[in-house]
Design goal:
The protein is α/β, with parallel strands linked by helices. It is 29% helix and 23% strand. α1 (24-36) runs parallel beside α11 and α6 runs antiparallel to α7.
């Protein structure tokens, strides 16, 4: 393991704030910092060679958001396109335009991977260890505040179960996270393994050119169809100033989302009835909705899948797509043999089997030489770690758009930095002194990718401010308007 002494001191510099990650969260953090704390020096370090994060990494057919852009978009930058459910390239352009228009792109240092960071209490700063480029040249940056915007999953590889007989298959197997331009599916038999957001995006997109696409799922997921365009938003944009129209649509969608989430939690059978009624209407009375689109869990116990303009259901009706609910017995030379004994022929198999979640982009943290174990930490207001000074991490909502929470976190961090500067504080740190606080899981979803990661993630607490409510209205009151001084946050000079 590299030690701090291995990193070249000659490359070190000091910044007030170091932002890690040049994706949706990192660019947003930089905008808020420039707007609210214009005197702060900062840079963004990005491990990859391009900005955009998720929206640059994923290149598979049909890549799009499963949240509307009036809530996934930034609060300060109206979404202008007609489509509310936008494709990946449009979202990437939106992020990069924000960075370019505000000079944020000039602050990004590409090929800079954060591998570790150590906080020094006497010096009141972080020493961040960087590996630069393919050669992994070592350097350090010191900063007063470390802002982690590196997302929530491992960018190097997705989750891939150990499928029996996978080495026997003579065709190509590709994970969506590793999609490249040479993946050929035109006129071919394709099997997509999975039933989550990636699968329901891939399947109808590939069906346009493939001979046939089969979505193979172990168990169903709730799938909801919505129009790709928001008529209310387009009407308001024609009649009102752009920013006002955007704000109105944003709040309309926030409130509708909160209402439906609460309906799912308080009256799950009613919510289930409404969702399945929509699926039956789109697939017709003869389709086996019970088998293929009726999960064993209640709505929002896992994230719902959104399909714009009912594209998945239309592809099924046109016989371009089949849904098979079964388990894999083994891969064969020509496809997949199922537990039922049936075999699915395939020229190409796409393993849409999920992500690998990692805390803090896999960076190692230590405080005064003491290693920080995220799994033994409480998460303060969903963004700061107990007993870890001057560090915030952006993590969005699981039941709503990522950026709704990211924007609020950014506002709070800037308020915090301003408060510290005005009062001469050099350190802020959340610390639990309540012996009655008990641990609760970081996220309560039953999804496989969440459950696989829980042991490595921080915990939420049983009461405020350690409790995560996944509620935009409550977070708005707490993060935008709530007092920065509470019984938990410790400031020092």
């Amino acid at each position: 393991m590299d030690t701090l002494a291995d990193f070249a001191r000659t490359d070190s510099e000091y910044l007030d704030v170091l932002i890690v990650g040049a994706g949706l969260s990192g660019i947003g953090a930089a905008w808020h910092l420039q707007d609210r704390c214009p005197g702060k020096s900062y840079a963004i370090v990005e491990a990859r060679e391009m900005s955009g994060g998720t929206w640059d990494l994923f290149r598979y057919p049909g890549i799009r958001s499963d949240s509307d852009m009036y809530t996934l978009g930034y609060s300060f930058r109206p979404w202008k396109d007609a489509k509310a459910i936008a494709d990946g390239p449009s979202i990437l352009s939106y992020i990069r335009e924000v960075a370019s228009d505000h000079g944020i792109d000039r602050k990004i240092r590409y090929g800079h991977r954060v591998v570790a960071a150590n906080w020094s209490t006497p010096e009141a700063h972080w020493t961040v260890e960087i590996e630069q480029g393919a050669e992994k040249r070592k350097a350090t940056i010191t900063c007063g505040f470390l802002w982690m915007c590196s997302g929530y999953y491992d960018y190097e590889a997705g989750y891939l179960p150990q499928f029996p007989g996978v080495e026997r298959f003579k065709g190509r197997i590709v994970h969506p996270q590793k999609w490249t331009d040479d993946v050929d599916y035109k006129g071919k038999q394709v099997v997509v393994i999975g039933s989550g957001a990636t699968a329901v995006t891939l399947v109808p997109a590939m069906a346009e050119d493939a001979q046939h696409v089969t979505m193979l799922q172990r168990s169903p997921t709730y799938v909801v169809a919505r129009p790709a365009e928001d008529p209310f938003a387009n009407r308001m944009r024609r009649r009102l100033p752009l920013k006002l129209a955007y704000a109105m649509t944003r709040w309309k969608n926030v409130l509708l989302g909160m209402y439906f989430y609460q309906l799912c939690k308080r009256r799950p059978e009613r919510a289930k009835e409404l969702i399945l009624k929509g699926v039956r209407y789109l697939l017709g009375p003869d389709y086996d909705v019970q088998k293929h689109f009726t999960p064993r869990y209640n709505p929002w116990d896992q994230r719902l899948c959104l399909v714009p303009d009912a594209d998945l259901f239309r592809a099924i009706r046109r016989k371009q797509v089949s849904v098979v609910t079964d388990q894999i017995e083994t891969f064969t030379e020509t496809g997949i043999e199922l537990k039922s004994g049936a075999e699915l022929p395939a020229d190409l198999i796409v393993t849409a089997t999920g992500l690998v979640l990692v805390p803090l982009g896999k960076a190692r943290l230590s405080v005064d030489g003491r290693p920080v174990d995220p799994s033994r930490s409480f998460i303060y207001k969903g963004m700061m770690y107990s007993d870890v000074p001057n560090l915030a991490s952006v993590f969005g909502y699981t039941n709503a758009s990522w950026t709704l929470k990211a924007d609020l976190v950014c506002e709070y961090v800037c308020r915090l930095l301003g408060h510290m500067e005005r009062n001469g504080y050099r350190q802020c740190m959340p610390r639990n002194s309540d012996p009655s606080l008990t641990e609760e899981p970081w996220v309560t979803f039953s999804s496989g990718y969440i459950q696989r990661a829980l042991a490595h993630q921080p915990k939420q607490g049983s009461k405020r401010p350690w409790k995560l409510y996944q509620n935009y209205a409550l977070d708005l009151l707490s993060l935008r308007f709530g007092s920065l001084r509470d019984r938990v946050m410790v400031f020092s000079k």
